[in-house]
Amino acid sequence: MSFLSPFGRDNSLYYDSDYDNSTIAAPPLAKLNYRLRSFLKTYFPILLFLSGVLLGVSLHSVPNPLLPPSPSPSPSSPSSSPTSSPPPITSTPPPSTTRYDYIITGSGPSGLLLSSHLSLSSPTLKILLLESGTTSTSTVTPSSTILNTGLTILDIPLLWSYVATTSSYLWPIKNARVGRTIGGSGMHNAMLYVRGRERDFKGWGWRWEDVLEGYKRIERYVGGEERGWRGREGEVVGSKAEYVDAVGGMFVESCRAKGLRIDEDGFNDPGEEGRTGCGVYDFNVFNGTRQSVARAVLGEKRRRNLHVVSGSEVRRVLFSKEKGKQSVRGVEFINGGEVHVSLLKSGKGDGEGLGTEDSDDMERGVILTAGAIMTPQIMANSGLWEHGDVAKLKGVGKNLQDHPVVGLIYEIDELNEPSVYTISTQLKEYGDKLKNRESAKNEDFGVLGTPGLSSGGFFKSPYSGEAEDSDIQVTVFPRVTEPHITSFMKNKTNPLEKPKALFTVALLRPDMRSKVVPGPFNSSSASKKDFPLPTIEVDVPLSERDVNILKWGIEHVREILKAPPISTVLGDEYSPNKNGDELRKWIKANHLPNSHWVGSTKMGQPNASGNYDEYAVVDEKLRVLGVKGLMIADAGIMPNVPNGNVHSTVCVVGRRAGEFIVGKKKDKDKDKKKK
Fold this sequence. Notes:
By secondary structure, the chain is an alpha/beta fold. It contains twelve helices and 27 strands. It has helices spanning 28-55, 109-121, 160-163, 208-218, 246-257, 293-301, 371-381, 420-435, 483-488, 544-561, 580-590, 647-674; strands at residues 3-4, 99-100, 102-105, 127-130, 219-221, 236-240, 244-245, 262-263, 277-280, 282-283, 285-286, 289-290, 306-309, 312-322, 325-335, 338-344, 365-368, 384-385, 391-392, 405-412, 455-459, 472-477, 500-507, 513-517, 535-540, 570-575, 630-632. A seven-stranded mixed β-sheet has the order 8-9-21-22-23-20-26. The relative contact order is 0.17. Its cofactor is FAD. FAD binds at residue 314. Residues 527-654 form the Glucose-methanol-choline oxidoreductase C-terminal domain. Residues 177-405 form the Glucose-methanol-choline oxidoreductase N-terminal domain. GO terms for molecular function: flavin adenine dinucleotide binding; oxidoreductase activity, acting on CH-OH group of donors.
C-alpha cells in the first residue's frame, strides 16, 4: 500500500509499508500538504471564485452519473429499469387534488431508499417525497455544477467539511449538524462506510441474519476480494480508500509497531475480530465522487411514479378518526411561504385503505424520514407525543443518543508556506480526470477525489465487558477539519499557525442520553415564521464510566503516537495537553456531539401480554403505535446507537421499511387472486 500526500503525487511522497521502523524518515514534501489543506479550508470561498474565473464555470448536466456499472436485476427482484423521462425534481407543490399511495417526509438516505424501493415495486403506485432542502448532487441540480467538473460542491469528496459547516446546507439547530439538502446528512458526512455489529441489534425485534442480509442488499461494493458478507448489487456504493494520506498511513504503521491488530476489511467483517485494531476505512466514494444515495436513486433508478418536491417543510401529519382509531389522511407542509396539503388516496371501491378494521398494514400511508431530530418535531406538531391529543407517546424525543467525541490535537513539524497555484493545479487536474472518467482509475483523481482522511481504529477499553465490542473509535484527520471540532471546540486553532493533525476519540456505547425538545407549534398559523424548530438538551450527562473510557482512549492514542513512524512528524500536543484529574475535568467540559443522532422515536418489542414499554414509539415493523397508516423509517427508531458511524444502518432501515410494505402488499395481492 502506498501513502499519498493530499496535495501532490511526487514520487518522494510515497514509501513502502515494509520499512525499518528504526531508520525511516518522513518525506519532507509529505508534510507540505497540511498547511495547504488548512489554507484551502480557510480561503475556500476566495479560491472557489478565482478557480471559477481561471477554469470556467460549468452549467451543464453530467451525462454519466459517475456510478460503477449497475448489475442486472435478478428475476426475483423488483424491476430496476427506469421509465423514460421521469418528472423533474421541482420546488412547485403538487395540486391539492392529487392523491398519493405514500407520502414520505424527508429525502435523507433512508427516505430515498424507501422511496426507490416502493416506486420500483409497482408502476401503479403514486409516491410523493417532500424535502425541505433544495441543493443536491449534480444529477439532481445540474445548474449548480462548479469548476468545470460537472459536479456540485456536494459531490466533491474533499469539500465535505466545508459543506458540513455551511448554514445553507443545514437546519439551524444548535450543537448539531443536520443536513438540509436533497440527500440529507448523506450529502455532508465524511463518507465513512461502517456497518453495525450483531450486538447492536439486541432489543430491536430484528434478527441479525435479516439485518446482515439487509447490509448486503443495499451495498454495491467495488473492488476488493470476494467476501460472503459483501454486497455487489445494491444502491449504496462502497470501496476501500485507494489513497492513504501520510498521517493516516503512519498512524496505522505505528499501530503495527505497537503490536496492535491491523484490519484489512474496512472494519466491516462481521466476525469477532472485525471491529478491533487499526486500519483503513471503507468509503462511499468512487471515481473521485461522493457516492451519495441521492446520486444512486435520483440519478439512476427514479421512475415516473416518484414525485420529488424540494423546498417543502412538513409541518404535521393530518388524521381522521375511523372506527375508533386515528388514521392518517395526509400531510401539511410549507412551500414558498404558503401552507399546502397533500392527501392520500381514500381506497374507496377497492376494499383497501388505511383504516381497515382488522389490520394495521400499510396499504397506504405516510412515512416519516426526517431524522432523529426533526421527526420528533413533526410528531409533536401532529399531536403524537407525551402531551399529544391524537396519541400519547411518552418516548417521542426521549432516548436521544450520539457518540460523544473529544479531539486530541498535535502540531506537525517542519512545514513550508502554501501556494494558491498548487491548489489551482489540483483543481484543474481533478476536472480533467472527471472528463475522462471512463478511462480513469479510482486512484487517479487526486486529493479532491478523497475525503482527505483514510485511517483510524477501534479499541476495547478495560471498562468494557468480555462479550462486548470495542467501545472507542479513533479517526485520524491530517488537518483539523472535523466539523464539530472546528465549530464547537472552545480552544480554536488558527489555520495560519503551525499545522496540526487531529485524532478524534469517540465513545461508542455511552451512558449519556439527550432529548429532543419540540418547539411550540401553532396549528392555526399559516405563517412560515411560525414553523417551530426543536432544541437538543442533555437528559443524562456523561457518566463516570463514560469519562473513564474517553480518558483511557486519549491515553491509548498518546501511546500509539509515541511510536515511529508517526512520532517522527508530530510535534507537541496542542490540546488537551492535560493528565489525571485535570484531563477528566477537561473531558467533562469539552466533549462534543458527533451528529450520529439516533433513538428519539425508538422501536419497542411487545412483552408476553402484547404490551410495549412506555418509551416505545414504533413496533418491529416500524409502525407508529396507537394510530393507523403512519411509519417512521429513520435513525430515530434505533433503540441504541450502533458501534461506529450510523449512515449504513440508516440505509438498512429505509430499505427494510420498503420491504415490510411491499411484502405485505404482495401477500395481499396473492390472497385476492386466490379468492
